[in-house]
Amino acid sequence: MLNIKFLYGMAKYETVIGLEIHLQLKTDSKMFCNCSNDADGQAPNSLVCPICLGHPGTLPAVNKEAVKKALMMSLALNLKINKKSKFDRKNYFYPDLPKGYQISQFDEPLAQNGHLVIDANDQTWSIGIERLHLEEDAAKNIHTSTALSTGQNGKTLVDFNRGGTPLAEIVTQPDFKSPIEAKEFLMQMRLIARYLGVSDADMEKGNLRCDANISLRPAGDHDFYPKTEIKNLNSFKSVEKALQFEEKRQRKLWDEGKAPDKTETRGWDEGKGETIAQRTKEGSADYRYFPEPDLPPLIISEKLLTQVNASMPELPFAKKERFVKEYALSSKDAWVLVYQRKWANYFEDIMSDLRAWLFKVKGVSPDTDQADKLWQAEKPMLSKAAFAWLTSELFGLLGNDFKIEDLKISAENMAELIKLVYEKKINSSAGQKILKEMFAGKDDDPSRIAEKMDLAQIDDDSTLEDLAIKVIMSNSKQAEEYKGGKEAVLKYLVGQFMKESKGKANPQKAEEILKKKLQS
After folding, report:
1. What is the pLDDT of residue 282?
2. SS3 state at 484
3. DSSP state, 462?
4. CA angle 493, 495, 501 (to 5 degrees)
5. Which residues contact 99 (CB under 8 A, 6 or more apart)?
6. According to DSSP H, which parts of 9-113 are helical?
7. Contact 277/243 with Cβ under 8 angstroms?
8. For residues 517 and 464, what is the distance between their CA atoms, to the nearest angstrom?
9. Residues in Cβ contact with 91 at an 8 Å cutoff, skipping those fewer than 6 apart
10. Which residues contact 319 (CB under 8 A, 6 or more apart)?
11. Which of 170, 291, 311, 377 is the most exposed place for a label (fewest CB within 10 A)?
């Protein structure tokens, strides 16, 4: 994370950024009807009904599951839940909005006045959240470039499958001072949504969409100036790049005495790497909001809030803090695991197995002071070993599209492999060979693989001493060079030792024995 204060504290202008985030909620049905909410791979306009198509005389009904998921997200963002909120009609005409209005929430949202603490590269800062409200998504326009492939030259097609999908719109305060802060916030917002299970939050698939508002002001000024809203941002990289471009563009206008004097909407052109003017931005009055007459006020009962609170999992920031404290990991290493919840759980299962094994081999009863002291002493080394084998070795075998659900190695067997190396029954090189066998699914028992491949480490001192003598005699020139003061040659001799032992010797012990023999 860059030092934002250093970069911008003495600058001529301050950057002011706020985000409007649309999060598709992962429910079985749409926001106000029973149509399926899973449009992936479905034929266009096959998941529609008179309600989501806005036919006259139809009546919407609120999706309770969408409300629960929106409440979970609200709690995670430390928002105040409004026990009573209402739905409104947001009126505008567009081809992807068959009713001519969108059912949303205007002046009485589901939740408001919260914050999210962002943690990146050992820095933390708090971003204010203005509100979270529920609404329905619009349909999907398929423009000329896509239409050409269907032979429909020069036309815009509309797929109404997405129309009516439940959305949680999250509006931040204008608290971001740089594009990188905005990107970090979005990444952690996605992580929270996935931890909660409320959304897949995939920007490339449109599950998570973002409009970014940016303006500049003279350094030290606390007023807000006309902002620019940037649309068509479909990746974290796009968010950062678009804001960087717009920051530079507006800085030039300020320098020329032509600071923006009205709010406008601009689209992001990924190919050109620039924002394109689209229209002057509408205000709330342009949408002619009025209460939705077909829906009663949304009342959140204490019973529902209790149920939602009880279903809340441990959130990413709290899990990261616990991993640092409980497993003696660095903040950076903890985030590596926490960013994938299932990998974090896998790591914890490994550590649980290692803890039980440690007490067993040491003959210590769990839940005693002796056990606690033993664990505190051994935990840093065991957690370091587990983290290294998981992230350096196992992750190194994974392809980009690999899912943990496809992993054939149980946490128990992964822990067993770590134990074999930790107890020096095998060396790390043998451990890597065993892991490859386990990963390929040829066998899942590391002890059995070690025996089958004859990888058990040689512990017998007399055998190791015999090997050392053989290496010295076979490499007399290098042995004399070492005795003459050329210490670097020792690495070569250790390598020859490992070759003679077929990789079954402990390199450190091999070095010790070689030194002893060479000095005698």
Report:
1. 62
2. coil
3. H
4. 105
5. 54
6. 64-76
7. no
8. 11
9. 100, 101, 287, 288, 289
10. 334, 338, 344
11. 377
- Cα 409–chain centre separation: 23
CA 304, CA 454: separation in Å to the nearest integer?
Answer: 60
With tokens 């056990």, the residue in question is 371
Beta bridge partners of 504: none
Give the pLDDT confidence of 190-213 residue by residue, as tens digits: 999 999 999 999 998 889 999 999
Nearest to 321 by CA among 114, 75, 119, 115: 119
Q: Which residues are registered as beta bridge partners of 267?
A: 231, 276
388, amino acid identity = A
pTM of the model as a whole: 0.83
Q: Compute the half-sphere exposure of residue 170: CA atoms within 13 Å on the CB side of its CA.
A: 30
Taking only the tens of pLDDT, the chain with its 520 residues reads: 334 443 444 469 999 999 999 999 999 999 999 999 998 889 999 999 999 998 999 999 999 999 999 999 999 999 999 999 999 999 988 888 888 899 999 999 999 999 999 887 678 889 999 999 999 999 988 876 544 445 556 688 899 999 999 999 999 999 999 999 999 999 999 999 999 999 999 998 889 999 999 999 999 899 999 999 998 788 999 999 999 999 999 999 999 999 999 999 999 999 999 999 987 766 666 778 999 999 999 999 999 999 999 999 999 999 999 999 999 999 999 999 999 899 999 999 999 999 999 999 999 999 899 999 999 999 999 999 999 999 999 988 887 767 788 888 999 999 999 999 998 888 888 899 999 999 988 778 999 998 888 887 776 677 777 778 888 888 888 888 888 888 888 888 878 878 877 777 777 777 788 888 787 7
- d(Cα 92, Cα 186) in Å, to the nearest integer? 28
Nearest of 408, 420, 422 to residue 455 by alpha carbon:
420
Instruction: Give the pLDDT confidence of 321-360 residue by residue, as tens digits.
Output: 999 999 999 999 999 999 989 999 999 999 999 999 999 9
| Tokens encoding 10 | 């003495």
Interatomic CA distance for residues 91 and 56, integer angstroms:
16
Report the distance separating Cα 147 and Cα 158, nearest Å.
Answer: 10
Antiparallel, parallel or unpaired: β 228-233 and 264-269: parallel
What is the Cα–Cα distance from 309 to 302, expressed in whole angstroms?
10
Q: Tokens 């149509």 identify what position? A: 35
Q: Are 172 and 18 in contact (CB under 8 A)?
A: yes
SS3 call for 465: helix
Q: Up-side HSE of residue 180: CA atoms within 13 Å toward CB?
A: 12
- N-term to C-term CA, the chain: 55
Distance, in Å, from the CA atom of 518 to the CA atom of 482, rounded to the nearest integer, reads 8
